[in-house]
UniProtKB/TrEMBL annotation:
Residues 76-360 form the RIO kinase domain. Residues 1-82, 130-153 are annotated as: Disordered. It catalyses: L-seryl-[protein] + ATP = O-phospho-L-seryl-[protein] + ADP + H(+); L-threonyl-[protein] + ATP = O-phospho-L-threonyl-[protein] + ADP + H(+). Gene3D superfamilies: Phosphorylase Kinase, domain 1, Transferase(Phosphotransferase) domain 1. InterPro entries: Kinase-like_dom_sf (IPR011009), RIO-type_Ser/Thr_kinase (IPR051272), RIO_dom (IPR018934), RIO_kinase (IPR000687). Belongs to the protein kinase superfamily. RIO-type Ser/Thr kinase family. The lineage of its organism: Bacteria, Bacillati, Actinomycetota, Actinomycetes, Micrococcales. One of its GO terms (molecular function) is protein serine/threonine kinase activity. Its EC number is 2.7.11.1. This is non-specific serine/threonine protein kinase. It comes from Promicromonospora iranensis. Keywords: ATP-binding, Kinase, Magnesium, Metal-binding, Nucleotide-binding, Serine/threonine-protein kinase, Transferase. SUPFAM superfamilies: Protein kinase-like (PK-like). Pfam families: RIO1.
């Protein structure tokens, strides 16, 4: 996986009022904790609701220094060239690729801040952008010209992504892996044997990529089937890039800030919206079941409320309903967890009935 270049600690952003954002490739745990308190302080891709913008929002690329003033031949601190074309086609999101995804080689990936720290991975906000007139040598053909559609534009191209980076097992805190990975197999038997050997360094590395692979494959299949999940842009080693769910708003100073959609657990929807949320959620769980999956950790903390729509996130622990001996138990737990939230808000739902319906759709 391409890494961001190392940056002196003095360049780390410590206050929201700075206009030029630069980040190190990998903050230390102490720096991560301080950064979360000073900047975002939210979990599970959560941010303040657009109607209540606060200092927890993360500045978007509009707050950066003008990229045309920098050396266009080299990425700046906290940047790298886009990795879109450096990964194999099978490691990119499903076709058709949405029009908002920036795919040009001239694009730069710039880290804007941390969104979430989790048990097995950290999620960062990433801007992939092409400055006005931006061109790299790889954009040009053999004759020095630009392919159709790749000509420089007076308008910058940009999109916001979530970069979810999985830790190695020795640095993770997630210890319930067996319940979810039972029945999973790798393509190479050598890797499978290494994973089963707890003393194997190679096995630990393969296990780390297995979580990233599982989430990317699940997102890809679910997106193609019409489930309410973020679009998976690409996977590169243990890094999964996916659609940022949220909005961009301007504060009183005119700065544009990215605001992640809040988790469902924070919402107090009206009766009509509550019913709509229930229909969307059960529809998404039905798509999972028909594809042979259970989410495995579904709760209001892993569901984003993006206005009137729900988006299901965090799918590395998806469970195979056919091969995993714990599948029924895991699916029933998902049903009971989400039904408890809706019941507490006055909607008459039945976890056992939902469980039976999902099993019927799966088999």
């Amino acid at each position: 996986m391409p890494h961001f270049p190392e940056t002196p600690k003095s360049l780390l952003v410590q206050a929201a009022k700075r206009t030029t954002k630069q980040y190190s490739a990998r903050p230390t745990p102490d720096e991560l904790a301080a950064n979360r308190r000073a900047r975002v302080g939210r979990e599970d891709l959560e941010g303040p609701h657009p109607s209540a913008l606060g200092v927890d929002a993360v500045d978007s690329g509009a707050a950066h220094a003008d990229p045309r003033q920098a050396d266009p031949s080299e990425p700046g601190p906290g940047q790298r060239w886009s990795t879109w074309r450096s990964v194999a086609k099978g490691q990119r999101g499903p076709d058709p690729v949405p029009g908002w995804v920036v795919t040009r080689d001239a694009a730069l990936d710039t880290e804007l801040g941390i969104l979430k720290t989790g048990k097995e991975a950290d999620a960062f906000l990433l801007e992939r952008a092409v400055p006005p007139g931006g061109v790299t040598p790889s954009d040009r053909g053999p004759d020095g010209g630009l392919p159709a559609g790749d000509a420089p534009s007076d308008q910058a191209e940009r999109c916001l992504l979530v970069a979810k980076r999985y830790r190695s097992l020795e640095h993770g805190q997630f210890h319930r892996g067996t319940e979810y990975t039972e029945g999973r197999r790798t393509r190479r038997t050598r890797d499978q044997r290494a994973m089963e050997d707890r003393k194997s360094a190679w096995g630990r590395a393969v296990s780390a990529t297995q979580w990233a692979d599982a989430e990317f494959v699940a997102l890809r299949d679910l997106w193609s089937a019409g489930a309410p999940v973020p679009y998976p842009v690409q996977i590169d080693g243990t890094e999964v890039l996916m659609e940022f769910i949220g909005t961009e708003v301007s504060d009183e100073a005119g700065r544009v800030q990215a605001v992640a959609a809040p988790r469902l657990t924070r919402e107090r929807p009206s009766d009509d919206l509550l019913e709509s949320y229930w229909e969307q959620l059960t529809g998404g769980m039905g798509v999972l079941a028909r594809l042979g999956f259970a989410h495995g950790d579904l709760s209001p903390y892993n569901i984003l409320a993006d206005g009137e729509r729900l988006v299901i996130i965090d799918l590395p622990q998806v469970v195979d309903l056919a091969s995993n001996p714990f599948a029924s138990e895991v699916l029933l737990r998902d049903c009971r967890t989400v039904c408890a939230w809706f019941t507490a808000r006055g909607l008459d739902v039945d976890a056992d009935a939902l469980f039976a319906d999902l099993l019927a759709q799966a088999f």
